[in-house]
Every structure is written in structure tokens, then in C-alpha cells.
Amino acid sequence: MSAAVRLTDLTLGYRRHPAVHHLSGGFADGSLTAVVGPNGAGKSTLLKAISGALKPLDGRVALQGLTARDIAYLPQQAEVDRSFPIDVIDTILLGHWRRVGPFRAVGQELRSQAEEALALVGLSGFERRPIAALSAGQFQRALFARMLLQDARLILLDEPFTAIDARTTADLLAVVRRWHGEQRTVVAVLHDFEQVRAHFPETLLLAREPVAWGRTVDTLTSANLARARAMAESWDERAGPCRRGMP
Ligand SMILES: Nc1ncnc2c1ncn2[C@@H]1O[C@H](COP(=O)(O)OP(=O)(O)OP(=O)(O)O)[C@@H](O)[C@H]1O
Questions:
Q1: Cα separation, 53 vs 201, whole angstroms
Q2: Is the pLDDT of residue 131 over 80?
Q3: In sequence order, which residues have a C-beta less than 8 Å from that of residue 83 and are 6 or more positions away?
Q4: Is-contact 179 186, C-beta < 8 A?
Q5: What order do you get walking across the sheet with 58-63 strand by strand?
Q6: Ligand 1 probe mutation, 23, 43, 45, most atoms within 8 A of CB
Q7: Is the pLDDT of residue 243 over 70?
């Protein structure tokens, strides 16, 4: 299977402090992959780089046949500002902004698609509710509805089920399965290993450097997890620029 996203000797960081070192590999087209690892392992940083929001310090992210409009990116809930005075249906319709353009009116067909997406995530009847008045789980459902409408080939989810109740998680996992069934490429940062084992066939175990990447059964072994923990214990948060590969 060809790779939708290929990473080549990728090094990422902030103000030249590396957060991900020398990562090479690919997310196969249509694959469903969990990215796991200790706190501070660089998981969110990797998703930001794939989405195009963060420029690599070194190496490259190559998107095969995909442009920015083919990517849907769900940041961690804490990074989303909900104080904006907008209701649920307009939030969902923003998922279409790239296709419709900012100045064209939203037609009835689009509105029906938005309502269908809301029904799929269990939010029918919430169309006119301001987003500030949704629970965390309802808001996450709304963001999934927006991604359904976006119709993206590559879907990046950063801790989509953190602080979300079991029922909402089950409903949103069904949406992830649907995307997988439609051969979209899905990459999700997750912390719950049981959930990963049950629902995600591929896993990248990251501890700033890749510890293992492949089938979940081969990646999430106790030896690999112990290695990732040991690597996390030796991190120096004030480490300087990465010098590996430099003369
Ligand atoms: N905007 C930023 N500016 C500076 N450093 C950052 C920034 N964002 C992340 N970092 C640092 O980069 C490293 C990796 O962070 P990242 O958030 O990617 O890890 P993570 O694996 O997603 O962690 P968690 O599981 O805690 O969410 C950490 O040392 C973090 O402090």
C-alpha cells in the first residue's frame, strides 16, 4: 500500500529545541494509526507538523497527492477557543468553508448535509445552541460533525477522547471506524492502550525518537513500553539544538 504521509529524517522543535528527533516512516494510504507515548514525547508536535502548522527543523513531511484542503486536524480541546459567539450549525458549516469559499451563501443541500452530520454524531436538535453552552462531550461531537462535512482524505486527531465520557467516546469511535471503512487515512494521538489495542490496527510509539512503529500487537509490547518510559526519564528539557548527523 502506498504512503499517504511519508516522514524522512524528521526533526521538530520549538526555538531550535528538538521535541521529535530523526523520525522516518510512513502512514499508509487508508491506514488507521494511534500515536502513543509518554507526556512530552512529541505526539502533538508531530500532528502539528503533518498538518502544516509547524515547519520542520530538519527532514521533511511529504504528503502524497494531498493538499492542505485534504487534511482535517482536530487539536486538543484545551487549544480550542469556545468563547466565540457562534452556534452549532454555523460551526459545522465552517467545515465547508474551503470548498464553498468565504463569500458564497450556504445552500439548502449543504445545510441538509450539515444536519445529516449532526444526526450521525447524535446532536440533532442542537443546531441553534451556542457552542459555549455545550458540554465537553457535545462540543467534541460537534467538531466531529464538522470533520464529517470537511470530507478530508487525511484526518489528524489529537487526544480526541480525553475528558470525554464512555458513551460519547463509543459514538465517536464509530465515526472513526466509518472513516477507516471509507479508506481515509486516520492518525490519532491517544493515551488509553486498551482502546488502541481494540480499535487501532497500527501504532507509532514515540518517545521523541520512534521506539516502534507497525502493527499494534507488535508495537505495544511491555518491552517497548518500558523502553519508552526509560527514554522519557532521561529527557533534558533544556537540551540544546540536535547535533546528530552534524559534522
Ligand atoms: N509551543 C511550544 N513552545 C515550546 N515548547 C513546546 C511547545 N509545544 C510543545 N513544546 C515542548 O515540546 C515537547 C513535546 O511536546 P508535545 O506537546 O508535542 O508532547 P506530547 O507527546 O503531545 O505530550 P502530552 O502527552 O503531554 O500531550 C515538550 O517538551 C513540550 O514542552
A1: 27
A2: yes
A3: 132
A4: yes
A5: 17-28, 3-14, 58-63
A6: 45
A7: no
Location of C-alpha cell 507488535:
218
Beta-strand pair 3-14/185-189? unpaired
Cβ 39 under 6 angstroms from ligand 1: yes
For residue 66 the three cell numbers come to 494531498
* Cell numbers given for 157: 486527531
Cell, residue 38: 509518554
Q: What spacing in Å lies between the alpha carbon of 119 and ligand 1's midpoint?
A: 35
User: Lowest-pLDDT range, 26-35, 65-74, 152-161?
Assistant: 65-74
> Cβ(123)–Cβ(138) under 8 Å?
yes
Rounded to an integer, what distance in angstroms lies between the CA atom of residue 93 and that of residue 115?
10
Q: 130, 87 in Cβ contact below 8 A?
A: yes
pLDDT level of residue 10 (50, 70, 90 thresholds)? very high
156 — phi, psi (to 5°)?
-115, 120
Which residues, at least 6 apart from 155, have a Cβ–Cβ distance to it below 8 Å?
71, 72, 74, 147, 179, 184, 185, 186, 187
- CA–CA distance, 193 with 177 (Å, rounded to integer): 17
Q: What is the pLDDT of residue 93?
A: 87
Complex confidence, ipTM: 0.96
Bridge partners (DSSP) of residue 8 are 60
Q: Which atom of ligand 1 is nearest to the CA of 37?
A: 21
